[in-house]
Design a protein that fits this description.
Length: 481
């Protein structure tokens, strides 16, 4: 099997759980992790005679999303019933939007293989309710039904088939993930299933206009699985076609344990959902004033922030991208940059390097950083004013992380101040030269590489505290002889 000659085509349907306190059509709590069936009321349980009431918050959140992806907010959208039977769906239908979704025709940009911006079309985004959950684990002879999730609000975001590789699909998914968290409309928690996607995958010979037959990979809830599942499915399809077979349109499941995709149901067995407008719910009507009012509440978006970090702080584009991946991280960096007297790039290096490393090591979020932004700025300032070298700063950083106090306090307590007195450095250099006559002779006969050896010796003598720039300069001068 070879991928040469084949083009991959992918469209994603992302389900983002909206971060409302109560459900989309009832007053039950949406909080995760409660005892089964303690957060489902008569509406969620599908009792006859009860009526759904739309939670206004979901309209606000969908509108924010529309504005963020440059989409149209439908002045009128309609809830429909999608009819099917399943034990976790007591009503016998799911309320969703079909023909008139609340959001249409948006776009978002991802970096392509050459680092240019690539536009990914967003066909639509619609509101719907989630179903309950069937539970099999720990139950020997029967299945359990937990309806806490029934009626939880979802925004389903459907992309155009514009993605051309598993990598692009992941980049797109990450973009949307960052965006919904910036907007505060979803917590994006993938372990809890608050952010997941179905990936539609097809292949076609390069140059062919017509799309190939697609399969749909259901319920992928980690970036790693999305990439793996798509790649496995692409290879399966190419192999199948090259062996003279045909792809059948069907729903497949990714099995991570065996790293394969397996059929779930084919198009022939697909349900006819008999969609029709829900007679219990009025169409949602959105006025221009409402949209305008929401526009005023929009936060700075990730792309805007990234561009500003490059313009205002002179950051490298890649670094600005990393630092704007989440709002708390961006805010932390900005607090360091504002409080430090040096360049923002030095602050960025410390946030992306040592700080991110320490957070990762201890499994902490930026919000739980053991070093405050103000304290990290204090460390960056001591590097900038040459009190300590970058190398010594790493030692100070670890002490700060361990809770030993501010950079200044640690530098003082440990006597780490950098030696910048040239005569002090000169006398150490003299000693090193006197102690190593053989190496000095070799260096003078052209073995330049020995410079590192001498620098190392001087640093050893000064416990790493001599200013490296000065050490280099003085060594060069003295070794000339
Ligand atoms: P459905 O309603 O059956 O799920 P849609 O036409 O709404 O189908 O498409 C769902 C998703 O599948 C969209 O993200 C779309 O971009 C994608 N898609 C449609 N056709 C193809 C194809 N041939 N290959 C890959 N993705 C596709
Ligand atoms: Mg679909």
């Amino acid at each position: 099997m070879s991928r040469a000659g084949w083009e991959v085509v992918i469209g994603l349907e992302i389900h983002a759980q909206l971060a409302t306190k109560s459900k989309i059509f009832s007053g039950s709590s949406t909080a995760y992790g409660a005892e089964p069936n303690t957060q489902a009321n008569l509406v969620d349980l599908g009792y006859p005679g009860v009526l759904p009431v739309l939670n206004k918050e979901v309209v606000r959140m969908a509108t924010m999303f529309a504005l963020a992806v440059n989409a149209k907010v439908a002045p009128r959208s309609v809830f429909a019933r999608k009819n099917y039977f399943y034990p976790d769906l007591p009503k016998g239908y799911q309320i969703s939007q079909l023909e008139l979704p609340i959001v249409a025709l948006g776009e978002i940009f991802i970096p392509d293989a050459d680092g240019n911006k690539k536009r990914i079309g967003i066909t639509r985004a619609h509101l719907e309710e989630d179903a309950g959950k069937s539970i099999h684990e720990g139950l020997a002879e029967f299945s359990g039904i937990d309806l806490n999730r029934a009626g939880t609000p979802l925004l389903e975001i459907v992309s155009e088939p514009d993605l051309r590789s598993a990598k692009e699909a992941v980049l797109y998914m990450k973009k949307i993930h960052t965006l919904v968290r910036y907007l505060g409309i979803s917590d994006g928690n993938m372990q809890e299933g608050s952010f997941r996607c179905d990936a539609n995958v097809s292949v076609r010979p390069v140059g062919q206009e017509e799309l190939g037959t697609r399969t749909e990979l259901k319920n992928l809830n980690s970036f790693r699985f999305i990439e793996k599942a798509i790649n496995i499915e692409v290879e399966r399809q190419i192999e199948l076609i090259e062996d003279g077979g045909k792809v059948v349109q069907e729903t497949r499941l990714y099995d991570a344990d065996n790293d394969e995709t397996r059929p779930m149901r084919s198009k022939e067995e697909a349900n006819d959902y008999r969609y029709f407008p829900d007679p219990d719910l009025l169409p949602v009507e959105i006025t221009d004033e409402f949209v305008l009012a929401i526009k005023k509440t929009m936060p700075e978006l990730p792309d805007e922030k990234e561009a500003r970090f490059v313009d205002a702080y002179g950051l490298k584009a890649d670094d600005a991208g990393i630092l704007t991946a989440s709002r708390p991280l961006a805010d932390y960096f900005e607090a360091v940059a504002v409080a430090s007297e040096s360049t923002a790039q030095l602050a960025a290096n410390w946030v992306i390097g040592d700080l991110a490393g320490a957070l990762n090591r201890d499994g902490l979020d930026i919000a739980d950083s053991r070093i405050s932004a103000a304290d990290l700025a204090g460390l960056v300032n001591r590097i900038h004013d040459d009190t300590i070298s970058g190398k010594i700063a790493k030692q100070v950083f670890e002490a700060m992380w361990a809770g030993e106090g501010s950079a200044d306090a640690i530098i003082k307590a440990r006597g780490l101040t950098q030696i910048t007195d040239s005569s002090a450095i000169e006398s150490v250099v003299d000693k090193v030269i006197a102690d190593n006559p053989g190496q000095v002779a070799e260096y003078r006969s052209g073995k330049d590489k020995l410079m590192g050896y001498f620098v190392g010796k001087v640093m050893q003598e000064t416990k790493g505290q001599a200013n490296p720039g000065q050490v280099n300069q003085i060594l060069k001068d003295k070794l000339k002889g």
